[in-house]
Amino acid sequence: MLLLPPRTPINRPSIRSCVIALSCLLVGQSVLAGCSATPKDLRDGVRKAITGRDEQIFVEDTVERYYHPNVMIKRGEAYFEKEEYAEALNEYTRFLEMYRNHVLASYEAYRLGEVHMNMGKSIERDPEPIQKAIAAFERVRKDYTGSKYDAQALEKLEECRSWLAEMHLFVGRFYYRRGSYLAAAHRFEQIFKTYPDRPVAPDALYFLAMSHHELGADDWARADLTLLLEKYPDSSAAVDGKSMLATLGGAYPPLLAQKSDSAIVSDAGSASTKIGRAHV
């Protein structure tokens, strides 16, 4: 019988040691590679597209820092300056939800109105942003009465209301040009009733008279023109109104000029009531 030499036992612990050593080597290489890039280098890679003050505003270390009031204010301002109004709107709204009593809350509330105003500042656009701006500025005056931005909010309110009046006039004239005289008359009347102190109010009354004339309601047209001459005698629309009133067989009553201011207001209210009946 052939005798074989005894088999040498495999030293399993030594294999295990090799595996561990190899693993350590691989991990060590990874660590060395990672160490070659400092935390600053890693952050710089994220910030390549962000420079200047934006670097401190948009990239922060912690959630707490991200929602710090000063950081939120700076971030909102950066968006506003870039005319990225939707993002600025989110920042200002979030700030007011979190820091309603902050020392700069009145400023953020005022900025919120400015954002809405800039988003809708065109007479050809939807009036909703301007309406939201009015609501925002009214909130500034209500919630932060006496603040630095109280008087400024009032000025913006006047500007917004003038824009809305111009929007209605634009739409009314559009309807008038299309021959939709009843729809046009509704718009012109709305301007006179809602914004009688706006610069476009005389034009609205004149176009209201023209719309009533096109509808065959010359009595109402004469009432419109009479009211125009009483309330806005120095307007450019009053000049055209006199000519139209003469064409319709009416005349500017000379006694109206001698009436007291209270009588004129009373007569104007009566004429306005007549105008309202045109659409009942």
The coarse silhouette is elongated
The helix/strand order is HHHHHHHHHHHHHH
Biggest sheet statistics: none
Q: Give the helix tally.
A: 14
End-to-end distance:
127 Å
Helix vs. strand class: mainly alpha
* Beta strands, count: 0
Helix content bin: over 70%
Query: What does the radius of gyration come to?
Result: 36 Å
> Beta-sheet strand percentage?
under 5%
**What integer is the average pLDDT?**
76
Unreliable sequence segments? 8-16, 18-58, 253-280
Fold and architecture overview:
- The structure is a single chain.
- The radius of gyration is 36 Å and the shape is elongated.
- The model is unreliable at 8-16, 18-58 and 253-280 (pLDDT under 50).
- The protein has helices at residues 12-35, 39-46, 54-58, 63-66, 69-81, 85-98, 105-119, 128-143, 150-177, 181-194, 201-214, 218-231, 236-247, 261-276.
- The N and C termini lie far apart (127 Å).
- The protein has 14 helices and no strands.
- With 280 residues, it is mainly α.
- The relative contact order is 0.05.
- Helix 10 packs antiparallel against helix 11 and helix 12 packs antiparallel against helix 14.
